[in-house]
Amino acid sequence: MRHVTELFDITIIGAGPAGLYSAFYSGLREMKTKIIEAHPYLGGKMNVYQDKIVWDIGGVAPKPARLIMEDLIQQAQVFHPTVVKNQQIMTITKEDDQFILQAKSGEKHYTKTILLATGYGIVTPKKLILKAGKPIEAKNVYYHVKAMQDWQRKRLVISGGSDSALEWALFLQELGAQVTLVYRKSQSELKAHEATITKLIKNQIECYFETEIEDISMDAEGDFVKIVHLVNRKTNEKHNVEVEGLVVSHGFESKNPLLQQGVLGIELMDEYYVAATSKGEANVPGIFVAGDLAQYQGKVHLLAGVFQDAINAVNAAKKYVSPKAHERGYVSSHNQLFEEKNKKIKKDYQIE
């Protein structure tokens, strides 16, 4: 067997909700854990939807996604896993009973098991591209909205017909922003929830349907968009809108080169999802999957569902590494690993 400087029980690829909770639970199962994320930050796609309100986690009051993300990141580090950011894993090989993960940088990681939690892969917003064929770069062009309070009483155009585009339009209007929504298809083809569409119409937000951005005019320094030039795709009617900001919500591009290479013969479904058992087992022994990437009968496609995925996958990985281990971890209320931590929490909540 090859000697390696550090061998982990489990290495989690992807630090979105599924990966973060897997890191916590594998620590609870007393596994030596590493988590590797391609981006320079943790949280996965929740970074894109930071202000969306999350309702579907049992026992957790509705709150912005960024707060859920912050809690998940904090929870993931309870058992002090090794966290590697800004590394994209390109290849996986196996020698004897060890997997070798090689990053784009050339660095290698050694592990007994792998938990794939890459979700929809490396996600980047689709850029606004106009006549010149190059993405528009300006200091007031945004692909997701942060610090919404900064938009009070400002004039902006939002381009897109998704839930995110409409929710941003509605929320910013409530803050006093003057919003124009532009969508290249008809009103009936909006991709948002019907309740959101109804509210959009009720709130009388200025909308241009079957319209797209034809061009933009910049300020004298070339730093900021000053005018957005719109054109109706059917009538060729044109409108010019003066703006202080342009928000582009045209969806995302997802890349998952690791799986596209057919790593170790991992079985895929619909050329993307990993075919798994309900325990999170892929068809390759020692490789497990959780979150949006996993596909199996009875899969729950909600944020709440990734936590069950993570628990099942980690438990299966634990049994793979230590066949005599229990099928599952002790519940947190009786787990000795939390004994000291619980003392402080009880004191904070004034529990005797």
Automatic annotation (TrEMBL):
FAD binds at residues 37, 45, 49, 89, 292, 333. Binds 1 FAD per subunit. Its cofactor is FAD. It catalyses: 2 reduced [2Fe-2S]-[ferredoxin] + NADP(+) + H(+) = 2 oxidized [2Fe-2S]-[ferredoxin] + NADPH. Gene3D superfamilies: FAD/NAD(P)-binding domain. Its EC number is 1.18.1.2. It comes from the Bacteria. Pfam families: Pyr_redox_2 (PF07992). Residues 8-315 form the FAD/NAD(P)-binding domain. Homodimer. Belongs to the ferredoxin--NADP reductase type 2 family. HAMAP family: FENR2. This is Ferredoxin--NADP reductase. It comes from Vagococcus entomophilus.
